[in-house]
Amino acid sequence: MPRLTTLAKLFAADHWIVLDDVQFVRRDYQHRARIATLDGLGPNRWLTIPTHRPSGRATLIRDTLIADPAAARRRASSILRQQYGTSPHWPAVERALQPVWNAFDTGRVATVATASTRALLELLGWRGQIFTSSTLPTRTGRSERLADATGARAYLCGTGGMTYLDHAPFTELGVAVVPFLSPATGLWASGRQVSALRALASRGPDAVGARFRALAFAHDALGCAA
Q1: Are 146 and 215 in contact (CB under 8 A)?
Q2: What's the whole-model pTM score?
Q3: CA separation (Å) from 121 to 35, 65, 90, 164?
Q4: How far apart are CA 171 and CA 177, in angstroms?
């Protein structure tokens, strides 16, 4: 259930490359999300998928398993219904999330994470393409693998990525690195911390989609990958 700014960056791109062949990090956002209350005034809570790492700390994201898929699915759906069930927009959001609950049956964290992001993108009208990094030929360096996998004219990079990204491999391949910046007030005030579900439930998919389209246009993101 990605954060609002993450979802907006993906929406602005034509291609989304899922980085599934790197090490799973237990305290990152790969298997959990901060869920805000509908009015944004109450305390946030973590929605976490309990995980099992078959290879210990070396386990890749794509190989990380859900500890108890059926229980995790029940808990996740219950938490979201508690948080947003009173919203007039909740029925539309809940329908969009059905593929996510089905994805729990695979027992794979990466499948659920990808399905949740895809579901929210499609709810907002995104028509891009999704690839996985494990299926793309790349070099091993951190920035090199991103540049190789992009296969587009431009790479949309968040503010965190801009602090470590080496531009040289992108320049070598003729790929522009485009900083993705989002507003910091109003709808976006907590967009870097909490899941986009709160905005969708409180404002509705149409209103959020309009904001995303305006932001994508401002970044002139045609032909970009993220």
Answers
A1: no
A2: 0.93
A3: 18, 24, 16, 27
A4: 9
Taking the C-alpha atoms of residue 122 and residue 119, their distance in angstroms, rounded to an integer, is 5
Q: pLDDT tens, position by position, for the chain (226 residues)?
A: 999 999 999 999 999 999 999 999 988 899 999 999 999 999 999 999 999 999 999 999 999 999 999 999 999 999 999 999 999 999 999 999 999 999 999 999 999 999 999 999 999 999 999 999 999 888 888 889 888 888 888 999 988 888 889 999 999 999 999 999 899 999 999 999 999 999 999 999 999 999 999 999 887 655 677 7
123 vs 189: CA distance, rounded Å: 22
Helices 205-219 and 4-11, axial angle in degrees (round to 10): 60
64: phi > 0 → left, psi -120 to 50 → alpha, else beta; which?
beta
